[in-house]
Amino acid sequence: MIGDWFASNAARIGELTAWHAALSVIPTVLGLVIAVPLAWWASRSARIYPLVVGASGLLYTVPSIALFVLLPQVLGTKILDPLNVVVALTLYSVALLVRVVADGLASVPHDTVQAATAMGYRPWQRLLLVELPVAVPAIGGGLRVAVVSNVSIVTMAALLGIPQLGSLFTEGFSLRLTLPIVVGILLCLVLSVVLDVLVHAGTRALTPWQQKLETA
Fold this sequence. Notes:
Layout: H1 2-43, H2 48-59, H3 64-75, H4 82-106, H5 110-118, H6 123-154, H7 166-175, H8 178-206, H9 208-215
Helix pairs in contact: 1-2, 1-4, 1-6, 1-8, 2-4, 3-4, 4-6, 5-6, 6-8, 7-8
């Protein structure tokens, strides 16, 4: 029976997994793009930092279901539009990443920043070529948390009928079948591990100097 279920649903499971991965990764990337300038701004002022970090942190307290229902009215999209999920998870990613990126930028040695300034780097050049590379280890850690969190939150969108691995949960519940639920949980776990490993590998690839320090 289990084999028959897998055989008849293999293509659909693959499609749901692909959708789930996309709905987890895209908002994480967009969240990072938005969080970097906000964090850079916050890290430049002790007065602005608590305001930006606090405001972004409040975003994470908004229930995901409420946000999924509210966004179509704000964006003018349909309730089943995946864009609603992307926007919602982008906001959650920003909430998680702003503090991490700001703290990472603030941890860059002052001497390094001064040296870059003395070499004629403009603020945006200093950010892209000096501060962000040094802060990559901290940012990578935040990205790992954000992408794994998104893998979990995406499943809630199944309650609105948006296809992804959470659809296996609602299907199993409605049909009173345990197998789809177990498969959905296992695939979410596997996807989380895979994405976490990829982000970690990317972080290490971008910081070869960090590896030399660890082995020194």
